From TrEMBL:
Its EC number is 2.3.2.27. InterPro entries: EF_Hand_1_Ca_BS, MUL1-like. Pfam families: GIDE. This is RING-type E3 ubiquitin transferase. It catalyses: S-ubiquitinyl-[E2 ubiquitin-conjugating enzyme]-L-cysteine + [acceptor protein]-L-lysine = [E2 ubiquitin-conjugating enzyme]-L-cysteine + N(6)-ubiquitinyl-[acceptor protein]-L-lysine. The lineage of its organism: Bacteria, Pseudomonadati, Pseudomonadota, Gammaproteobacteria, Pseudomonadales. Its main location: membrane. It is found in: Membrane. Residues 84-179 form the E3 Ubiquitin ligase MUL1-like domain. Signal peptide: none annotated. Keywords: Membrane, Metal-binding, Transferase, Transmembrane, Transmembrane helix, Ubl conjugation pathway, Zinc, Zinc-finger.
Amino acid sequence: MLEEQLVGLAFSVAATLGGGWWGLRRLAQARHLLDTPTSKIRSAAQGYAEFYGVLAAQAGTAIAGPLTGKPCLWWRYSIEEYQSDDKTRSWRPIESGSSEAWLLLDDGTGQCLINPRGAEVRPATREVWRGNLRHPRGPQPAGWAGLFSAGKNYRYSEERLHAGQPLYAIGDFRSSGGGRQGLDLATAQSAVIRQWKGDFAGLLQRFDGDGNGQLDEQEWNRVRLAAQLEAEDRHRQQSVQPARHHMAAPQASQPFILSCAGEDELARSFYWQAAAGACLCLGGALATAWLLGVGTF
């Protein structure tokens, strides 16, 4: 009896903590989505940003879903195996994976490359079917063949993003080239000096005027001046290059989301999930209080 009460108490405490954490997390994410203004790629400020646009194909890239073989821009898949015994029956995950190919978002004012690593991706296209092979030989059978899936031991799921689909993206936005980056001269100068120190023999050959194998204070001043001029020249060359925009996972705890659904639909879904987390937390707290009240520990 005591062991059963301890197990029940452990589950109730876990439900309280897990539900509370999930509810607060989803609530904070919904607020981030609603509080972040939608920007245009061409004029967006650097940092955390939100875009609406259309997925575009990139030249020279050919990606296909690993289970269906259908062409796409991004994929995620899972394979489950059906297991049963005298007491339980369930689908057990045995394999999964997702694409790390960069995506190209076009909002009409510019294009932004997106690194999907670490993102919560919500595609509009999802296929689920069953079969008797661990790895299916192509997509789900069409017509009557696809109806008779009972008794098959494997269940497959594949999600994809395709060119031309709308995409909502929120994450860390950075630009390079196009004269958009300011010059932090001290940082750029230090970077040039560190690079030169990697070839110290070459550094001595350029700046060791007296040939004693060392750099004195006057020679180091020449190194610093040359590095400053080099940093300024590199910045000028980079500024005349066409602007390139990138989005990736933010450093802070802000959400990084790529979704075919819009902001309002996402926020509404997050609010419902936050409410479910709050209910789980409340139910777990009530169960914990009841077990502590009636149990004998």
